[in-house]
């Protein structure tokens, strides 16, 4: 029987994509969520995490607290997950992001210091330390796969989701959050999942973070151009600048939270994924035009 791969947060966008990728590669999968149709567990508790991870060979940590509760809840969640992975004797693959670096000049590489001073960046750095310290101490094997803003089928809780794709299909203005003319690395969900599963398969991935492969950086104007072409008609587009973010944030707490990391929106935000490619060979990444078309199709079916 194939090794058991456990996906925590399996009803979220990344978790669901990882489940699909594992299924495609023929693995035995346990899809864990607090209230979904698969294996139900509250992994914020040690007992729940141990139950969720039991008998696993690899555990993919794709669960996270609500965006506004990261600082309060992410470290405790991570400690519970580590305990579950340790009890199972499994390997942990963390679905990570790029917040740890803070504002930088030039493309981001994995050897940059974790100098973020904003609360979300600091807590993500703390989470990474907890995981890698557990690896270094021999409690678990672990690796981290970092991605930027993502889009794709199932991607609804993201700045590249409803405000672009659902809006475009409804004939409304598709809005890019940030400066329309700054290059930005964006990841396509199935590519994120493929990268994470590869990290789970490869022993040489252990003990460090990796930037997952992505298509070439695009500006907001270019990305919205792919959307315009895919919908096949006139499309109203706009950028959501800092002033508008502050205004909307007065009554929308999710938009308000974006102000903390606005440096990701008003200047180049580019991730260098060459270390992953050098270590694991050429990686297939979905061209943005193809990914945009598939995402629009998903939104049509699920609107």
From TrEMBL:
It comes from the Bacteria. GO terms for molecular function: aldehyde dehydrogenase (NAD+) activity. Pfam families: Epimerase. This is Nucleoside-diphosphate-sugar epimerase. Residues 6-205 form the NAD-dependent epimerase/dehydratase domain. Signal peptide: none annotated. It comes from Cryptosporangium aurantiacum. One of its GO terms (cellular component) is cytoplasm. Gene3D superfamilies: NAD(P)-binding Rossmann-like Domain.
């Amino acid at each position: 029987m194939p090794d058991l791969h456990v996906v925590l947060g399996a009803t979220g966008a990344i978790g669901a994509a990882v489940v699909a990728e594992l299924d495609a590669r023929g693995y035995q999968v346990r899809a864990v969520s607090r209230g979904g149709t698969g294996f139900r567990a509250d992994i914020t508790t040690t007992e729940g995490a141990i139950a969720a991870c039991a008998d696993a060979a690899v555990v993919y940590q794709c669960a996270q607290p609500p965006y506004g509760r990261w600082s309060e809840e992410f470290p405790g969640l991570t400690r519970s997950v580590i305990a579950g992975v340790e009890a199972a004797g499994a390997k942990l693959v963390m679905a990570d992001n790029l917040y740890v670096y803070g504002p930088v000049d030039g493309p981001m590489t994995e050897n940059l210091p974790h100098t973020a001073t904003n609360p979300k960046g600091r807590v993500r750095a703390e989470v990474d330390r907890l995981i890698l310290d557990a690896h270094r101490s021999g409690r678990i094997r672990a690796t981290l796969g970092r991605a930027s803003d993502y889009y794709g089928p199932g991607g609804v809780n993201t700045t590249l989701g409803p405000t672009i794709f659902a809006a475009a299909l409804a004939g409304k203005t598709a809005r890019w959050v940030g400066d329309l003319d700054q290059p930005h690395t964006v990841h396509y969900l199935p590519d994120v999942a493929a990268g994470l599963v590869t990290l789970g398969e490869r022993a040489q991935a252990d003990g460090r973070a990796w930037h997952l492969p992505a298509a070439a950086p695009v500006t907001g104007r270019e990305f919205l151009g792919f959307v315009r072409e895919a919908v096949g008609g006139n499309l109203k587009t706009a950028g959501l600048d800092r002033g508008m973010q502050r205004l909307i944030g007065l009554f929308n707490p999710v938009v308000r939270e974006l102000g903390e990391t606005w440096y990701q929106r008003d200047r180049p935000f580019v991730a260098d994924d060459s270390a992953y490619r050098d270590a694991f060979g050429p990686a297939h990444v979905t061209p943005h035009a193809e990914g945009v078309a598939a995402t629009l199709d998903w939104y049509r079916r699920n609107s």
